Amino acid sequence: EPSLACEECEGAEEMPQPLQQCRAWLRAYFWEPASTATLPVPAFHHPLLQRDSFTRQVLWTLLRDVKFGEAVSYKQLAELAGNSRAARAVGGAMRSNPIPIIIPCHRVIRSSGDSGNYGGGQLMKEWLLAHEKLQKEKLQE
Known about the structure:
The longest helix is centred in the C-terminal third of the chain and has 19 residues, at 122-140. The protein is built from six helices and two strands. A two-stranded parallel sheet has the order 1-2. It has a domain at 49-139: Arc Repressor Mutant, subunit A (Orthogonal Bundle), CATH 1.10.10. The protein is globular, with a radius of gyration of 16 Å. The chain has helices at residues 17-31, 47-50, 54-65, 74-80, 87-96, 122-140; strands spanning 72-73, 108-109. By secondary structure, it is mostly helical.
């Protein structure tokens, strides 16, 4: 449960459109997760997401195919991205993710079911997974 009110930035209305979209998306993710599916994905201008590479393919596949409250193994994500033998490369793509949470690398877990590594730390990954599980259960009630 969110216990703090969302603080708005001063001058938020003066933010460029991509930042306004990002702010709206993150706010929805934490407080109204069901609405993230209907929001436009913020425009991403990071060079990693512009050039044609397996990392880009993995990140876009993750964003498009692994929904809120779901988890996928590194191997499964490699298969979804078109190279079933590239589970280790998927791990590298997760480490390179320039926009975690929006591109939800916390949803990628080990085949054993263990949560695996996360750039924001183990506790953060487990919190994000638990947040999504709880919110998904609430939506299904």
